[in-house]
Amino acid sequence: MVLQLNKVQKIILIFLILTSAGSWLLLSRQSDADNNNVMMRAMMLYDPVAISLFTASWTVGMAAMMLPAITPMALLYNRLIGGGDDTTHRQKQIDENLMAEEKPKYNNKKSVSLKLIVFVTCYLAVWALTGVALLLGWSIPLNSLLGGNVKQQELVDTIFGVVLILSGLYQFSPLKTKCLGYCESPMSFFMKRWRNGVWGAVRMGVYHGLYCLGCCWPYFLLMVALGWMNLLWMGLFAAIIFGEKIWSRYGIWVARIAGTGFVITGLFTMIGIITLQNNVTVNNIQGSTSSSGSGISSEKIKDSKSNDNKMSNMKGMSFITVSNDSSESHLTI
């Protein structure tokens, strides 16, 4: 069934696209060093200000990455609640028949706008909370492993490999398939989770956020765990997510191709062909505490020496080292 857009829905489409584009522009103006320092301060010192700044930046990133992918869901929701004066009688009749027992109520423009805003806001709120949970959750093993010796680096590499492999294998799981089914089929989602009213918009926004989380959490775990929070990786993951959700019936193959790539990279990491070092661990392994960098200096952070060593000299967002018997080459992203 082709979704025909009325005037209001065209405005919504333009608004979502412009909001996403504006978010990308805002992210591009933030330096990697500043983002890096905020993230590391939040993870190492649990600074409330840094955590708040990270949450704000993360939410902007979610708007940039996820709003294009939820556009079909938002447009259909607007149509189901009666958005637009030129919604045809036939469209309303089809929508009511599809909604079966619980038929939507066609309300005034203010009510429609409010419900749509609440729906999208609650969806983004789920992702904002997810970012904080990933940040704080990953900080626990990260802080315990930062001691600055080679054996611990090998353990970190193993953990990175395991994270990649688990993220890749999840792409083939039944839960991934089920969640993706609701994300790529908006009507299926609304037929299962429809609730009337503003409170219904809250519940459906949260439910959609949770289904989307069930689809996409591996990508964002990798962004936090491996330090892949720059525009390159965000753009790559956003393209994968968009392909999964928009390419109906074949989106699962996009996920499985990405999953295969994660598993292969994880295996290469665990056997030593590839070394993935995030921006925190690399300088601790090198034992460097005095060279120049973009991290937070010990003069500005009046904490223990171990915290200074953890947060000094952080360069770039991620490091990939490919080793062979005769030489080493480095790719910094």
Structure in words:
The chain is mainly alpha-helical and 333 residues long. It has one domain (7-332). It has helices at residues 7-28, 32-45, 48-80, 89-98, 109-145, 150-170, 174-184, 186-193, 197-225, 231-246, 251-270, 281-286, 305-311, and strands spanning 274-278, 318-323, 328-332. Strands 1-2-3 form a three-stranded antiparallel β-sheet. Helix 1 packs antiparallel against helix 3, helix 7 crosses helix 8 and helix 10 (231-246) packs antiparallel against helix 11 (251-270). The longest helix is centred in the middle third of the chain and has 37 residues, at 109-145. The protein is globular, with a radius of gyration of 22 Å. 37% of the residues are buried.
Number of helices: 13
Principal-axis shape equals: globular
SS-based class: mainly alpha
Task: Return Rg in Å.
Answer: 22 Å
Provide a quick synopsis of the model.
With 333 residues, the protein is mainly alpha-helical.
